[in-house]
């Protein structure tokens, strides 16, 4: 009996959760691979949505292999057959939408209700909690336009992870780094474990 209790207590709050992982165009997109692996290991069902820009940094094959689901990269599944990916169904299916990395471009689109791709359409349709992990260079991150867009997204009820300071891909050092996958897992488990305060 004690062994069963221990096993239950150690189970991740993400077990059985349906997570939409949106990956946008940033050098930090390569971290989507270990993030996907950690989510799956925790027992979550992960569906990855990859923007066209993100595919230049990480392949659908990599993320599809790790998530054990075909990666969605656009609205159309089979143009000749008229098959498409239903953003409304995806938004209703998910227990959480996590956009990591969230580039300055994607953040601007979401904050202003623009819908140029499947990820943005799913965001606008989602009824679940939304988490964003910004990733960009320090001057972009500090720009008033980005600061205002992040504030606006927070005002909509989205959870925006703060960017830690550190070395950036440009060689500069400062804020703009994407939160590490392990730290995002901690935040998600805290949220689904009922410990969230925001």
Automatic annotation (TrEMBL):
It comes from the Bacteria. Residues 18-188 form the Flavoprotein domain. It holds the Pfam family Flavoprotein. SUPFAM superfamilies: Homo-oligomeric flavin-containing Cys decarboxylases, HFCD. This is Phosphopantothenoylcysteine decarboxylase. It comes from Hymenobacter armeniacus. The lineage of its organism: Bacteria, Pseudomonadati, Bacteroidota, Cytophagia, Cytophagales.
């Amino acid at each position: 009996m004690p062994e069963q209790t221990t096993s239950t207590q150690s189970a991740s709050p993400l077990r059985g959760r349906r997570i939409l992982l949106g990956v946008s165009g940033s050098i930090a997109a390569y971290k989507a691979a270990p993030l996907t692996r950690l989510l799956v290991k925790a027992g979550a069902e992960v569906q990855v949505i990859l923007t066209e820009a993100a595919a230049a940094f990480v392949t659908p094959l990599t993320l599809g292999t790790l998530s054990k689901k075909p990666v969605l990269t656009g609205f159309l599944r089979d143009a000749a057959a008229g098959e498409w990916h239903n953003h409304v169904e995806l938004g209703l299916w998910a227990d959480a939408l996590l956009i990591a990395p969230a580039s300055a471009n994607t953040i601007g689109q979401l904050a202003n209700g623009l819908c140029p791709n499947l990820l943005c359409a799913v965001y606008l349709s989602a009824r679940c909690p939304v988490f964003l992990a910004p990733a960009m260079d320090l001057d972009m991150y500090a720009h008033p336009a980005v600061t205002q867009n992040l504030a606006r997204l927070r005002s909509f009820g989205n959870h925006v992870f703060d960017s830690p300071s550190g070395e950036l891909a440009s060689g500069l050092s400062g804020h703009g780094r994407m939160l590490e996958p392990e730290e995002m897992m901690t935040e998600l488990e805290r949220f689904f474990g009922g410990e969230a305060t925001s």
